[in-house]
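Input sequence (772 aa), recorded before submission:
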Amino acid sequence: MSVSIFSLCILTLSAQNFRIRGTVSETGQDVPIPYANIVLQLPDSTFVNGATSNTKGEFVLSRIPAGSYRLIVSCMGYESTLIVLDNLNRNIEIGQIQLSENSHTLDEVTISAERVVTRIDRQIVLPSPTQIQASNTGYELLNRLMLPGIQVNEMQNSISSLDGGSVQVRINDVKVSTAEILALRPHEVVRIEYIDNPGIRYADEGVSAVINFIVKRQSSGVSGGINLNNAFTTGMGNDNIYIKANNKRSEFGLNYYMSYRDYSQRRVDQQQQFVLADGSIRQRYRKGSNTPFNYTSQDVEVSYNFTEPDKHVFNAVMRGNFYNSQRRGFRQTVYETGLPDLTTFQDPKNKTYTPAIDLYYQATLPRKQWLAVNIVGTHIIDDYKHNYIEYSDEFTHPDSEYRYATDGRKYSLIGEGIYDKEFSHFKFTSGIQYTQSYTRNEYTGDTEALTGMHNSNAYLYAQIQGKLSKLDYSLGVGGSRQTFDQDDKGYTYYTFRPVASLSHPLWKGASLRYNFRITPALPSLSNLSGIRQQANEIEVNVGNPDLTPYRSYINQLQFNYQIPRLTMRFGALYNYRRNPIMGEVRRIDYTDGSYLFEYHVNNQRSLSQFNSNGYLQYQVIPDLLSVSTYAAFSRYISRGNTYNHYYSNWFYNGNINFTKGNWAAFAYIGNRYNSLFGENIYYGEASSGFNVNYRIKDIRLGGGMWYPFQARGWVGRGRKISDLVKESSTTYIRNNGNMVTLSFSWNFNYGREHQAGQKKLNNADYDSGVVK
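Predicted structure, token format:
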């Protein structure tokens, strides 16, 4: 009997879960340390649980089974502490854990195991001190982390997904711009959340990956910096300057970013085949000549933040984007059998001004709850002109000329609220977003029209995330109602967005994950317009007011394996789009023998994509030399109302990163990621380059080269494979080849510190609705 009672007690104890509480503070002072990393391990260093201390230095680890553990507490700038917990069999109040300033971190072998923690929908990455020291911007830090499936180009300030999708970058859950990523101070980064399986919250935005920097945000009385990256062999620059100042609980910020290109050696070659009514083929070869190309994009942001820690956050931002491109045209000589040679000149010009105001409020509620509200007002002013001229003589009298211009205005108001609550066994998130906009576009020239459109969109979503035994799960559902009122027509669309994800560990370091989601896509404002834009004497672009939304059904299976120094990922994806909005070509034959080729968009039958991919990252020498490689194969099947097209593509790339002391270097190379959509093959960018930089305290000097050993410079391609029109287009920008760049960065920090609260929502509107 006593043996049975003893066994029952042991079984009961083993089935229980316990809690660990504590507070992190500075040694010898009652000063809390926020955003400290708390990691719970088994004695063999296997990760069990983790947390981050709040602004009061407090942390809680819940649902801990009985057993023996190692508790590691660490924070940048402090000596890490290791606490051994033998035979944990009850709730523990550890009390204050005091960390000493800048001494020694844990041994490298000890902390490497928990640098990357895998969750149901994300990886939590803890940058090493070496990676942080070698980085001066958010782009540089991401590049050194080598996240699976992400391509980072710190020279061009770009982040892309290797599967061809878009990547959204956030700081403390706030969607940010290029300027804010450049202004990010790597030493403030606590961790990085890499969400390669975006949940229902992101479903309405159509992103394939989200990178969320979690930062301490301890801005001093006055802090700022400057980041310059310019070529001295041609006109190219990406430059940023920012400054912040605080007074008590208020923080004021100013951020300015400018990107410009000014090239003289850009040309476009085209080959065209038009199938006529009698079956004959009309062929054209358009040989380009070098013409200037330039643009300037400027972003200005003024911000104010008021924070009462763990209670309220108010944030106000006024921002403006100024885009000006007066030289985007290109000159060509047209050769066609039986006809005199022609000289053509296409001259599009575009100016866009987008001012916006962004108001945000967040309240922290009791019992692990928070509520946030975001309101954004935007005004888009779009001035677009396009001229096409053909000459057969010495440019005295044009043979044909097509001119049109658009004066576009759009006003929009976006409101969003989100609620988040943590329960003992799962987390619940829900939100609603509402958008109201009015678009007015006046078309002049060969096309005379005035269009007005009212648009509204209501999106409601909810999601739960939790764990059942060893199975992690995430289930979400969203729905939206979108309306369009254009002239005398009205449209109402309803969409449904379910999302599901399951993840299960296989063995130590290995896991298998399955994702499913249905993603609807709505017609763009420009596609819904019925405007006809004449490109030349035989080609015209036409909108379609009768478009309807379509859905993508996405299934994804992914295997992950990670051990110290080695990370591997293999995946397969199947994406089926039903009735997608894709292009088609129609030939209009007239009784006088003339004809037109019209380029329409319409709801087609289907588009299928199968993708298989593999990723390998290896730390040859930890924190000194790392290499990674990625390879993928994609197969596309495009079924239109009048066509069937098939296309396959192999893609690969490789990266190498070197860091030692104040020196840092990287190199990358990759071929084109191509895709088929409708009757067009879109060619990605073949990339290559290298960069070396050296840090002197708060100053970093660097140099590199874009597209080395390429005499023709940057080359872009595109193809149309319609049965009626076949076209191959190649763009050459020789100025980009062997482009030598120099970079300079300087950050400064003076005065006391302010703990600025961070937004959890960020909305913006960039769709002007102009047909171009």
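Checked by second reader. Residues 280 and 448 are 34 Å apart (CA to CA).
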